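User: Reviewer 2 asked us to show a designed sequence for the structure in our supplementary figure. I'm pasting the structure tokens here. Could you produce the per-position amino acids so we can include them in the response letter?
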């Protein structure tokens, strides 16, 4: 007797997720709203493929036998390394450079799709997730950066999150000026300082001070080595971090707060020309933000670091300000759902001339989670098809005719194709499909020239109030009959009422 073949265990790879019809409908509704805002601002769609040549992705150059650090890679038939895209920005830079002669300058586009990270997955950390980006390539001035900030605010308002977010703005040039004044010029030390500043929300000013100095020991006893700065170097950096704290009686995000913060920053950059340029750019951005009526929604926050080695000027981050419970049961601010900034060096990897660029990226999955928590996700399980039950197998052509009539009228419909002849099991199938109604035609109905329509939505509501099984059978809640020729009109009326 031959052995039965071994069955494969169905397993979803770690860091990936399946999406149900309800998930797809909800995300689709959210993306449609974001798209509407992007297009209102004059951005057009473009789509790039999942794969790019690995060298296109920048920091993932094929310098090993298999360049899979951070990306998923393979070789094509001419031994060229290709990788699944890590983000949507590097493919845009390649697309712009490749089509430089034909594209308008600046080039304003948006892109939505999955990106892939070959990293260790964890809670809320996926290997495949969706982003929704918008970029202006070839736009030089702070006007383009201000527009990105205002567009992010409009997206949040459109999604129903008004009053529950802020768009935080900073400029990397200002920070570079402060670091230069403090005598910090080495890249490795500078990176450690930036990471310390980035921990302000988590550890507070004193925690940042420790990370700028010798280091910090956490509650578990783990030690994080610091930047090794002297007290004289630490003080201007802490003053920079504190420069955005509003004075007593001054509302955070108000014009008075913006002016005071810009003045504070101007006093911390010393003679740095880079720092001065950054201060001037921030002043220009907030002049535009204020004039357009976005004050309070777009705020100046010097603690925003974002993209430690990526951005070259203004940086921005969308932060949701409502609280949620973390895994320890503590109330914490939901935090960032997207951001962006100016990245003037990326396209120049492909072309000799400088090409300025600025853009934003919204984390679709994380934003969807936020909308779910606030009741703003905007879509439930989509309605299934109207199901025509098969009461008599030899009448299948009649049932198929009904289905065709419904479909021609634009109604989503199907004939029951399962093997069961049992009425209850066929209705149970329709329930699982989230069907709004089933169509019933047995021999008695055919003789009378009628069909029965069972409204599954109304039936569930009525059945909830009936406790006796015999009463339920007699009442047949939600069920009514119509003439066969009136089937389509009756279903259309029912669906409009539902």
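Assistant: Here is a per-position design you can include in the supplement:
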């Amino acid at each position: 007797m031959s052995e039965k073949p071994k069955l494969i265990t169905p397993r979803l790879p770690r860091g990936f997720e399946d999406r149900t019809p309800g998930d797809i409908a909800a995300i689709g509704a959210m993306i449609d709203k974001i798209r509407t805002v992007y297009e209102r601002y004059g951005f057009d769609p473009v789509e790039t493929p999942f794969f790019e040549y690995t060298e296109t992705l920048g920091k993932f150059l094929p310098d090993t036998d298999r360049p899979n650090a951070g990306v998923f890679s393979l070789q094509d038939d001419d031994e060229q390394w290709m990788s699944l895209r890590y983000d949507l920005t590097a493919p845009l830079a390649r697309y712009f450079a490749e089509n430089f002669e034909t594209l308008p300058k600046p080039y304003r586009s948006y892109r939505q799709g999955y990106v892939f990270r070959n990293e260790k997955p964890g809670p809320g950390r996926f290997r495949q997730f969706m982003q929704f980006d918008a970029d202006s390539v070839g736009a030089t001035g702070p006007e383009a950066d201000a527009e990105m900030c205002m567009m992010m605010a409009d997206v949040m308002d459109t999604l129903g999150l008004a009053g529950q977010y802020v768009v935080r703005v900073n400029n990397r040039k200002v920070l570079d000026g402060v670091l230069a004044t403090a005598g910090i010029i080495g890249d490795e030390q500078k990176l450690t300082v930036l990471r310390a500043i980035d921990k302000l929300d988590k550890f507070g000013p004193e925690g940042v001070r420790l990370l700028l100095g010798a280091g910090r020991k956490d509650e578990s006893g783990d030690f994080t080595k610091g930047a090794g700065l002297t007290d004289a170097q630490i003080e201007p950096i802490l003053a920079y971090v504190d420069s955005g704290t509003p004075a007593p009686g001054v509302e955070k995000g108000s014009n008075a707060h913006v002016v005071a913060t810009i003045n504070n920053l101007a006093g911390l950059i010393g003679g740095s020309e880079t720092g001065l340029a950054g201060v001037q750019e921030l002043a220009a951005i907030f002049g535009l933000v204020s004039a357009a009526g976005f004050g309070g929604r777009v705020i100046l926050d010097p603690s925003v670091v974002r993209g430690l080695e990526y951005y070259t000027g203004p940086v921005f981050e969308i932060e949701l300000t409502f609280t949620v419970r973390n895994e320890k049961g503590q109330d914490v601010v939901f935090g960032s759902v997207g951001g962006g900034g100016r990245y003037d060096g990326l396209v120049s990897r492909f072309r000799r001339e400088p090409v300025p660029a600025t853009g934003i990226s919204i984390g679709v999955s994380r934003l969807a989670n936020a909308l779910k928590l606030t009741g703003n996700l905007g879509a439930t399980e989509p309605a299934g098809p109207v199901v025509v039950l098969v009461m008599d197998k030899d009448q299948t052509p009649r049932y198929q005719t009904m289905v065709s009539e419904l479909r021609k009228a634009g109604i989503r419909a199907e004939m029951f194709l399962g093997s069961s002849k049992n009425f209850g099991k066929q209705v149970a199938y329709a329930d699982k499909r989230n069907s709004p109604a089933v169509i019933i035609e047995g021999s008695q109905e055919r003789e009378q020239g009628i069909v029965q329509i069972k409204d599954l939505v109304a039936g569930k509501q009525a059945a909830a109030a009936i406790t006796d099984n015999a009463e339920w059978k007699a009442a047949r809640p939600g069920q009514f009959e119509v003439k066969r020729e009136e089937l389509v009109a009756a279903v259309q009326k029912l669906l409009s009422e539902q």
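For the response letter, you might also mention the following. The first strand starts at residue 44 and ends at 45. Residues 162-320 form a domain with the BirA Bifunctional Protein; domain 2 fold (CATH 3.30.930.10).
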